[in-house]
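Shapes recur. Our protein:

. . .
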Amino acid sequence: MAYVFVHLLPELARGQEVMDGSDIALLGYLEHHAYLLALLGLAAFYGLERLIKRHRDELPEHEESHAGVFWLHMTAFAIYNGLIGYLLVHGENGNLSSLILYCVAMGLHFLVNDFALQSDHKDLFRRRGRWLLAVMPLAGWAVGNATEVSELAISALTAFVGGSIILNVLKEELPEERKSRFGAFLIGSVGYSILLLSFQSG
């Protein structure tokens, strides 16, 4: 949560500045391009999660997901993980400290997502899905090292992924049904915010 509010949202604002300076005609008709792309990313993953939840609710308790539903979910998260790996190279991680903080935040985020996907798809995820999702950040990083795209494209990708991250953070890291503790949340949020702010000002 600290990463989202202290780093990601300001990055969306910087992306908006890049898009405001673009001479692409379509962007001229939209006032808040980066935020609309973030909303699109959030909406896409929300729609997918509602579809998966509806399917899961129709299954008997210990039955695995149907293959089509499983692979749809894995494909979406594979692209998501790949884009996060890609932005490791091209995102706003100009120095070693911000790169380390990005890797720590996204590594923990992947861990929480994997736990939720394991709960959704049981053995099917353990046998197949987790290996695909584990390799995708590396694949995204490799593609990022091999390709060069415009600052506008990076801003658009960051905004879309940012919206997806916001949804997944809220959905998985602050769930109503789990026993969570406000004290642990507060310590984690304040501590990581201090780390982010100290490295940004350093």
